[in-house]
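Per-residue structure
===
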Amino acid sequence: METSLEVLLFSAASIGFVHTLIGIDHSLPFVVLGRARGWSLRKVWSITFLCGFGHVLSSVLLGGLGIGLGVAIASLEWVEGMRGEIAAWLLIIFGLFYAGWSFARQRRQQRHIHSHDGGMVHSHEHGVQDHSHDVKIPAAATAWSLFIIFVLGPCEPLIPLLMAPAVSLGPWAVVPVTAVFGFTTIITMLVAVTVGFYGFKLTPLKRLEAHANTLAGLAIACSGLAIQLLGI
């Protein structure tokens, strides 16, 4: 029995929503980095949209190539699985690197060695504040790192969704199904990020603000671990 376009569109919207909502890697990195770096909600939205668009587009291109070449769905799912492994490990590596860099930077801010007249040298502790000579990871580098990770990361449910209309209704049906899935995925990412953004603002974390970037890196690494261990 042929599947109607309406059923496929509903499936695309439902799967896109659920897949994005339960995948903490689709929202957590943007929320914690936005909070740690003091980004505005508009900036967080922009980076989230860019990463979400690249995330969906890369799988669309792979699926379209598979349809054009007549590649079996099992082969494409294997490729997507490999991409998922790579993306998860990249999230872990990026998160740990960001946490380590931030922790080291914080320690440099807290402790400085000063030289005084007469040759006396001493070191003392400072409060955690920014210094003009301190090296900081550029925001652009952070955003583009996330973008690359999301482009490499697969939209696992999208491949079967692309193949189903191509087989049952013809290649023309792939376009609306893909559009609905992509739109739902990106909108869900933006809504989840918005809820997390304002949720963090309501959380009393004053004591942890000095460690915000370190904790953000660890949270990103944990989202990668969740993909590896729990398959979400």
